[in-house]
Specification:
alpha/beta, 20 helices, six-stranded mixed sheet, Rossmann fold
Length: about 600
């Protein structure tokens, strides 16, 4: 066997008296395909920088085989000082590289970029693709990729997967994208409790192996606790003479206690929960032949899109960057009016929005102040006061972090704090734009569980295929041409219905419906082909009654939420509250009736 291309021996990093990790040993072979996993704050990115040679360890040694070229993709690349991305990418080549301009153009073209673009005017996804191009252009023998899929759209993620599948060197990946890691890795490095463990199977086996490791450590801890209790009992009962003769045994007891303190403790899980509040109406969103086209453009962003989103639906939105995902999200949530067609929101919606920009966080405010905006030490969570420290611990924050500013947090910790702040509020309609960016896998699992159990409605934009498979009930695909087609199920279900081409060959809406619903049997010649007169008449009545009932609900809600009616006239307040409840029930019944008729109409049109 050839010698390793890179080795770490007894490597450690310390911050004052705190140990980030220590005793790290690693031998990276020529064809290793590894993932580096661990919770946020465990030191994964720091260890990756040590491997890359960007940080000198406080103890231990790093050795790279002579002649081996390493390339490192950091989480937040620095584009300052570069006028074009062509200049930036060219820095990944050796100084004497021939035909550099041609190589830069070729790799940028494969990532749908041009060398003359100014980094200052690019999106997060375009900057990430530029950083990937710089990392890959020099044909390195070792690739070190820290969250390479962040801000990438699905076509680019799949392009990178295919590149790495045919790559002949060694690579180490840090990523929260389970599908990405499952498809690519042959072994796992797990940074946990200051130690680095290796498992010589791919990420698909990581959960089983890590659970077995936790079980093994907990069993060893139980045995050690029992042994310590026996030693303590002996020490207390022993005579003075025995203590003099057996000080060595006492020293062993103290060493055991130190070992017990330093053993790996399984990190507590974040306790995520969300108050659904009052239930929304049965119909949450209705879109009928809705299009969005901006003035002066020759093609629509969204063309002739129709859907019905009912209470409890969880709808995923996927597509390449620039295909209109955010436009569709704004259209369906009422932030953007359609250029043509109709979009109608249901009643009694309490919307919670979490975007990927983390716009709700002030970098100079402490975590404590972020959660307790009105002062004090209590956070209202699901209608009940909770001490801010208890709530922070639920989200895996340490007491020492409570008074630190938000800007001191890692990207994953900021995202977790944003979740903590947002999820304390009641809602029945959750809108999530790339919520998985920078989340560690434990928090990601818990967010998946929360959304699965959430009784409200969810609209979710995500590039995380595994997350979509675990959460959504239907998937809307945008291919960049203006078409938006909805499929039942998650990402994998969508692929099956599209025969494995998520954003390739364009499909018509009728083709998608055939794949979604399967082949229909020929209609019986005697079967009705249109609604009965009774249904048509009732549909016209509902078209009149529904807006009137919605207006009544809105009027009563406004009367109850303004002024001091409760203090000035409690009886009138109770009367109006009772009327509001009756109006909501009446509106729900009308919506159910309308839905039944429209479902029947759609079935007859097939």
């Amino acid at each position: 066997m050839a010698p390793p291309v890179l080795t770490l021996k007894n490597v450690g990093i310390f911050y004052g008296i705190e140990t980030l990790f220590s005793g790290i040993d690693l031998a990276l072979q020529e064809n290793d395909q590894l993932c580096l996993v661990g919770r946020n704050g465990s030191g994964k990115s720091t260890l990756m920088k040590v491997i890359a040679g960007l940080i000198e360890p406080d103890e231990g040694e790093r050795f790279v085989r002579p002649g081996v070229h390493l390339a490192y993709l950091e989480q937040e690349p620095d584009f300052s000082g570069f006028k074009t991305i062509g200049d930036y990418v060219a820095q990944g080549l050796a100084a004497d590289e021939q035909d550099a301009a041609h190589k830069v153009e070729a790799i940028l073209a494969s990532l749908s970029l041009t060398p003359t673009l100014d980094p200052a005017h690019l999106s997060g996804g375009e900057l990430r693709r530029s950083a990937l191009a710089r990392t890959l252009i020099g044909d390195p023998e070792v690739l070190l990729l820290d969250e390479p899929t962040n801000h990438l759209d699905l076509p680019t993620i799949e392009w990178l997967e295919n590149y790495l599948k045919s790559y002949r060197g060694a690579f180490i990946l840090i990523s929260h994208d389970r599908a990405f890691l499952t498809h690519l890795t042959r072994a796992c490095l797990w940074l946990e409790g200051e130690e680095l463990k290796r498992h010589n199977k791919g990420f698909a086996d990581f959960e089983r192996w890590s659970e077995a490791e936790f079980d093994r450590v907990e069993e060893e801890r139980r045995k050690l606790d029992a042994f310590i209790r026996r030693e303590v009992s002996w020490a207390h009962k022993g005579t003075t003479a025995r203590r003099k003769k057996n000080m060595g045994r006492l020293r062993r007891l103290y060493a055991l206690r130190d070992e017990r303190r330093n053993q790996i403790l399984r990190v507590g899980k974040a306790s995520l929960g969300v108050d659904v509040g009052q239930a929304s109406g049965t119909l949450v969103i209705e879109a009928s032949h809705a299009s969005v086209q901006y003035p002066g453009t020759d093609k629509p962003i969204i063309r002739d899109f129709s859907t019905r989103v009912m209470r409890g639906d969880k709808v995923g939105i996927v597509g390449p960057n620039g295909s209109g995902k955010t436009t569709l999200l704004n259209l369906l949530t009422g932030k953007l009016a359609p250029s043509s067609g109709m979009v109608r929101l249901g009643t009694n919606l309490s919307m919670l929005t979490i975007d990927q920009k983390r716009a709700d966080l002030d970098p100079d405010t402490s975590l404590w102040e972020t959660l307790c905006e009105g002062g004090g030490d209590q956070v209202m969570v699901r209608g009940a006061p909770v001490h801010v420290m208890t709530y922070l611990k639920d989200f895996l924050f340490l007491e020492s972090q409570a008074r630190q500013p938000v800007k001191s947090l890692s990207g994953g910790e900021r995202n977790r704090l944003l979740l903590a702040k947002a999820l304390a509020k009641p809602s029945n309609f959750m809108v999530l734009d790339e919520p998985t960016n920078d989340l560690d896998m434990e928090t990601l699992d818990l967010l998946q569980d929360l959304l699965f159990d959430y009784e409200g409605t969810v609209l979710l934009v995500s590039h995380d295929r595994d997350f979509l498979d675990r959460v959504v009930t239907s998937t809307i695909v945008l291919d960049g041409s203006g078409d938006a087609i909805e499929y039942a199920g998650g990402y994998t279900d969508m692929l099956a219905q599209r025969q494995g081409t998520p954003f390739g060959a364009k499909e018509t809406g009728s083709d998608a419906r055939k794949k979604d619903k399967g082949a229909k049997a020929p209609k019986d010649k005697k079967s009705p082909t249109k609604l009965s007169y009774k249904h048509e008449h009732r549909a016209k009545e509902l078209a009149r009654d529904l807006p009137e009932q919605e207006a009544l609900v809105a009027k009563l809600e406004a009367e109850l939420s303004t002024g001091n009616l409760y203090q000035s006239d409690p009886d009138l307040f109770a009367q109006k509250a009772k009327s509001l409840e009756a109006a909501r029930q009446r509106l729900g019944a009308l919506e159910d009736e309308w839905l039944e008729i429209e479902t029947l109409r759609e079935a007859l049109d097939q």
